[in-house]
Every structure is written in C-alpha cells, then in structure tokens.
Amino acid sequence: MERLPGFRDFYPEPLPHADVGSADARQFIFQKWRDVARRYNFREYDGPPLEPLELFTTKSGDEIVGQLYNFTDKGSRAVALRPEMTPTLARMAAAHERRFKKPIKWFAVPQLFRYERQQRGRLREHFQFNADILGETGPAADAELIALLIDALRSFGLTARDFVVRLSSRNAWHEFYEGRRSKSGGRADHAHEYNFFQTIDKLERAPPEESDKKLDALGFSMAEVSQFIESGKPTAELETILQNLAARGLSDFVKVDYHVVRGLAYYTGAVFEAFDARGEFRALAGGGRYDNLVKLISGGKVDLPALGFGMGDVVLLELLRARRLLPRFDSATDVFVLIEDEGLRPQSLRLVQDLRTAGYAVEYPFTATRPDKQFKRAQELNATRTARLENADYVRIRDLKTRQEIVAGVADAANHLK
Amino acid sequence: MERLPGFRDFYPEPLPHADVGSADARQFIFQKWRDVARRYNFREYDGPPLEPLELFTTKSGDEIVGQLYNFTDKGSRAVALRPEMTPTLARMAAAHERRFKKPIKWFAVPQLFRYERQQRGRLREHFQFNADILGETGPAADAELIALLIDALRSFGLTARDFVVRLSSRNAWHEFYEGRRSKSGGRADHAHEYNFFQTIDKLERAPPEESDKKLDALGFSMAEVSQFIESGKPTAELETILQNLAARGLSDFVKVDYHVVRGLAYYTGAVFEAFDARGEFRALAGGGRYDNLVKLISGGKVDLPALGFGMGDVVLLELLRARRLLPRFDSATDVFVLIEDEGLRPQSLRLVQDLRTAGYAVEYPFTATRPDKQFKRAQELNATRTARLENADYVRIRDLKTRQEIVAGVADAANHLK
After folding, report:
1. How many inter-chain contacts (A to B, CB under 8 Å) are there?
2. CA A197, CA A191: separation in Å to the nearest integer?
3. How many helices (H) and strands (E) does chain A have?
4. Is residue A140 predicted with pLDDT exceeding 90?
5. B353–A136: do the CB atoms touch at under 8 Å?
6. Does residue B149 carry a pLDDT above 90?
7. Please, what is the average pLDDT of chain A?
8. Are B412 and B354 in contact (CB under 8 A)?
9. What rounded mean pLDDT belongs to chain B?
C-alpha cells in the first residue's frame, strides 16, 4: 500500500531512500524556528488543520476552492484542510481580542495543504513557520517582523551571501496604480487593481510579451512599470523600516525591490519576500501587512492591524542542503551497555535505567548476543561510549572516540559520563 | 466564524477562555515525550495525516469507516484523516524494511482524527505519543516498551501513587477461550473470539447483567471469567516481563490485571493499559504486541513482529492538571529593553539585537511610550530584567526579582545577564 501522491513520509536518518522525507531534518528546522521565535518573544499558537471552507473563501474568494483540499464532512459541513494559517490566526485573535495586550506577537508551525488537480508530483502538503504581529500600525512592527525573518534564516548559518529580503510596498504600487489610472481615465475597481498586482507579481516569471500584453489590456505600459521598478526609491514608510533594520545591523540582508508585490489580494502596506541570493530557488518566505483581514474574518466585529510572514520547509531544506548547512543526523546514542555475561543482565538493566534517568540516550541488546555483534551494533549506532559490567559492583566505560577506558562503581557510573 | 465542533484552538497562556487549548501545555507535553524517547534511543518518524482509506480498513475491517474522518478527494480517491498511527508505521516500515537494523525503535507525535456522528461535543482530534519496537519477538522488547511508558509518565512528576500499568496477555485469554470453548463444544471462528475479547474489554464499564448475557450468548459464564481474572496468575511470558521491569526498579508501577484485553482485533501477545491510580480518568495509554499486522498491511511481503503503545494528550493533561503537575507558563521574557529617550532608539534596537543574538528573549516598546507604561508592560510580561541605555555607551540592567541594578558597557551587556 502506498502513501497518497503529494504527501511525505518522514523517516529517521540515515534515510532508506532518496524519495522520502527526513524526520530529523524536520525536527532540526522546527527547533530553530521555535528558538528564534522565543528570542523575539513571539508566543506559539495553533489551530485545527481542518476549518470551515467559508473561512478561506471569505478571505480569498470562491476561486480559491480550486486549490483547496476541501470536502463535505459527515455532518454535511463544507470543510477544508488549511492551505494557510492567516485566516485561522485572524479567527482566533478576533474571538478573544480583548483578552490580549497589544501588540500580539504570535507564531505557529502548521502543516498546510493544497490540492491542485493539474500538478501531479508537486507536494500537496508542507510545513510553515508563521509569525504575525497584531495591533500595531507603525512601521516599527514591520521592521521587527523582517528582523525575525532575517534571524530565522541566519540561525541556520545562512549569511548575506546566501539570501536577501526584497522589500516593497503595496502602498507605493497603489499610488502608482491610482496616478496612472486617473491620468489614463481607466476603470477603478478592486478586481482591476488586483489583476494589475497579479501581473506585476508574475513579471519575473512570465514571458515579457505576455506581461506586456496583460499590462496593455489593463491600461498600463511595460515602460512605465519598468521605470517605476528600476527607480527603486523607497517610500517614507520603507525608509523608516530600512533605518530600523540598519540600527540592528541588518542592512546587508534587505533591499528595496518593487518587483515584489505579492499576488494575494489582502495585503495593505509593506510586503516582502526572501530569496536565495543566487536566484536558484523559489521564494524562501513571503509576507507583509494586512490591516483589513481581521475585520473581514470577524464580520466587522474586530478591527486589528496586522502583518505576518510564512516560511516553508521545502525550499528552505533545498537551500540548506545545497549550502551544506544541515548537520549529520544520527541516532545520538550516548551509551551502549554491553551485556556479555547473561548472569549480569538484571544488574545491566538497572544500569541502563540509571543512565537513562540521568538523561543519557542508552541502548543495549534485548537478547543474548555475541560480544563482537554487540560492539558492531554500538558502532552502527554511532554510540559515544560503551559500558560493560565487570561484576555486580563495577562498570567498565569505554570512550569509542578516544578509546580511553575507566572502571567505576556502578552507582557512580552516570557521573563518569559527563 | 467558529472553529469546527470537536477541534481545539491552542492559545498561548494565560488562556483567554476556559474552553480553549493551551499551546504551551501542548509543547511542554511534546517536549517531555521527545526527551524520554531520546533517552530510550527511539527515533522519530511521521507520516501523512491523510492516508488511503484502505490502509485503515485493511487493518480494522469496513466497520471502522463509521468512526473515521473519511471522504473522497478531488482525484476520486477514498481517503481518511488518520485515526491512529500504527497502520502508517506498518506501511512505512514495510516499504523499506531491509534498510533498517533490527530492532527498530521508533516514535511519533501525530495528531489523530475520528468522526463519530452520535457523540457531539466529544473531541474529534487529539495528539498521541506513539512508540513501537519492530523486529523483536522476545519479551525483553515488551519490557523495554513498558519501561518507556512508565518513564514517560514519570517524567511529568507522576509517581507510583498516581498511576499503574495493568499488564495482561492476549495469549492467556486465547488459551482460556480455546480451553473453555472446546469443552463446551462451542464454535471456533475469529469473529466469535473477537466478540469474546470485546466483552471482556468492556467488563468494567458495562452493566454486569449485560456482560453476563453477552458471555452466556457466546457460550461462557461470568463465574469462570471472573475466576480467571481474580486468579491473576502471570503467564511465563508476563513473568519474564515483570522480572525485567523489577531489575530496572519499576515493579511498583505495574501489576498483572486480566481485565485488560484491548478491544482491537490485531493484538497477539502481552497487552497493557496505564490508568490513574484512583480510577478517576479514562486510560492514559494502551498498547501491546501485534506480530501479524506488518504482514497484513504489506500484503504478505514483509513479516515483522511488532509491539507498541499510544498515549493521548487529553487524559494526560486532565491528570496533570488534577495533580497540579503543570508548571506555570508565561511569556518567559528575559529582558525588557526600556526606551525612555527616543534619541537612543537606534542604539536600543542594536542592544535588542545583540541580546537576542546572545540567546535571550527580548521585548521592547515599538513606539514612544511613557516610562511607567513601559515598566508595567515589562511586569505584565513577567520579564526577569529590564535594560535601559544611560547613553550610547552604558546600559543599566535591573533584576526585577532582587531589584538589584548594575551599569555595564553596552558591548558587554549580554555577559552581565548570565
């Protein structure tokens, strides 16, 4: 029986096959994410992986349904596996908004799902580091969030040579749009502006003729759009964010780049995306300000400015592999207890228990096993030490790296491992 | 908009409402589970939360579908949110069986799902600590697994006064069944034996008359069943397991109790359940040996003896709350950087950055804020210390517990926090 297409099995390393996920690498990434969030004083939250379909269509419109893993449950509810975390966050924050001091700084590490019928072979799930700040309108919050993004990537050993955060502004693009539109006497409606943003968002990936045609149809010219992007002049808001990041010593990691606009309809201010510096991979992370979403999700009841980003595990893992920044994962066995005299098995089990209670990762043979096989197993497990009872009272501890041996009293064994 | 019934939102503490889950308590539990698994040298794995429906019906028969969160996906596949981890484990182990040295010791912390139409208000998801050993037939593996279960519960501060592992044997019950059945000339088929096990499993929860009637219909008497349970004589296999646990010093945590038989059809040897000692809660954990399952799931291709247990987060959390064994969770802010002179904001941001880089959890005001409000915020966040720049070169660090203050050079601030 096979797993479903687009889903990953996560095995302990060494991996049995190139085509499976690594549970160790996943846990390594999750721990780094959680640690940097802690240093930035973000608190963890989570919601259900399954939500009412309406939560996602309210935010993104009915067209999102084509990309969702949605179905009707046994209670006739239209539900969907979450494709992103922001609607859940907005729902949760709005539900108990008055109980939280502002600014709210929260993060989550959700598994997210999508179902696109055409793209077989592409993953249908991934994990994401989601960090959001709610209740703060000023650009200091944008800078704090971008600093967190930068430090999240740096915590893996990535440097300014490896990645860059491209900073842009929906406000700047909105002004551009409004200015040109009114001059040309073009239509002014949300769908039109959204289509314009979508076209800008795809500029770098789409064939130039296609973008040219689309912009033309929307009443804009490629020339004026290119000129605006190339000018790269930061807005006052972006300037404040850049100065804040400069004060932190993080200037090298960020640059203004108006190619970034983010395709999603709900962004309202600064937007940004992190890319590997060589441009070999898809975006590492993306986010921005979405001041109207909590109001929308809460049906107008709660109005909270907000901003956030998501960083996926898949592209990050590809980059860390390419830059050789993943540690070697192995069983991390601290002590392999050799049982060569079966008469000493009960005392050996007690030793195993005591060493584990003292915090060590301990392995031993379940059944009578030839000494050479036991030693081989200890080596396979990459054990740091072996411990073998000489008799009921004394244990011989051997360091497998230095080959040094000591003999210690059994009751004292744990102290000799430090 | 509301979350779906039976699902939990997990908020950071202090919780905004009694009716929501605690992300902090959840993470606390997960960390304890992962730490004890590490000490026992179990390796982490995970599979998809969504699996082919067939994976679960192959193991448990079509009647399981009534309890599953199942649906047909957009690719017309019959799929289900996993109700348990064992079928996924069996699938994963079988897929690459030859690549793993035996015994395989693996654990996972999956979220599991079920959908029972009748029981509204009951949870439809929970998390479970799943630990399994594959490739070892002897009772030493059963003892290792039960020791892990005991130490998992002990790691939360629970003692032999708080919980007990009730150890039983499918083999003993099978012998009982075969012996009585052949004497009485009863039918011998799997469904009949399964119904018998189900009735034994429910003895303690069902009304005596009902059990009596059911046993009678199956060709057994309550008297002989009660006598067998009360005798409590360990089989040779159970005796070996008990001696192994005694050698580890864990005798106080386990007792033979033939009330336990486990309702599921696939158990084949020792079975066990952990309960709170006062019998106030549902089972904390349950498991046993299932030597035929990997063969069944792999369509006969891979034959691996196996055993495992699952420990849920919901009952465990109830017990830890009742025994007051949960720590107080708060924001764990190490340093609140006060910015009283806005002229020093850039230097203060640099200090924030440096302290975070040094590993501290740091908070500060995003915007110009009255000093008393800043201090109040530091107290709300339960910050250990405040740090305030005297000027560009010196920082005043105040311990909010001892109220001691020191003044240090800015570059040296992190060293003064140790």
Report:
1. 240
2. 10
3. 13, 19
4. yes
5. no
6. yes
7. 94
8. no
9. 94
CB-closest option in B7, B16, B26 to A96: B16
For B231-297, what is the HEC assignment?
HCCCCHHHHHHHHHHHHCCCHHHEEECCCCCCCCCCCCCEEEEEEECCCCCCCCEEEEECCCHHHHH
| CATH class of this structure's domain B335-417 | alpha beta
What was the ipTM of the complex prediction?
Answer: 0.95
Contact predicate A78/A52, CB 8 Å: yes
The per-residue pLDDT for range B6-48, each reduced to its tens digit, is: 999 999 999 999 999 999 999 999 999 999 999 999 999 999 9
First to last CA, chain A: 46
Which amino acid is it at B18? Answer: A
Most confident region among A189-193, A201-205, B302-306 by mean pLDDT: B302-306
Q: Where are the domains of chain A?
A: 10-322, 335-417
Task: Collapse the DSSP code of B197 into the 3-class scheme (helix H, G, I; strand E, B; otherwise coil) and give the result.
Answer: helix
pTM above 0.80, yes or no: yes
For residue A115, what is the nearest residue in chain B, using CA coordinates? B74
* Element housing B386 (H / E): strand B385-389
The CATH class that applies to domain B10-322 reads: alpha beta
Chain A hits for B38, Cβ within 8 Å: 332, 361
Strands (E), A277-358: 285-289, 306-312, 335-338
Inter-axis angle of helices B190-202 and B170-184, nearest 10: 120
- B181 pLDDT band, cuts 50/70/90, is confident
Residue of chain B nearest A43, judged by CA positions: B12
Smallest CA–CA distance from B114 into chain A, residue:
A74
Phi, psi for residue A270 in degrees, rounded to 5 = -65, 140
CA distance B90 to B97: 10
Query: Mind giving me the DSSP string for B305-370?
Result: -EEEEEEEHHHHHHHHHHTT-SPPP-----EEEE---GGGHHHHHHHHHHHHHTT--EE--SS---
Partners of residue B17 in chain A, C-beta under 8 Å: 96, 99
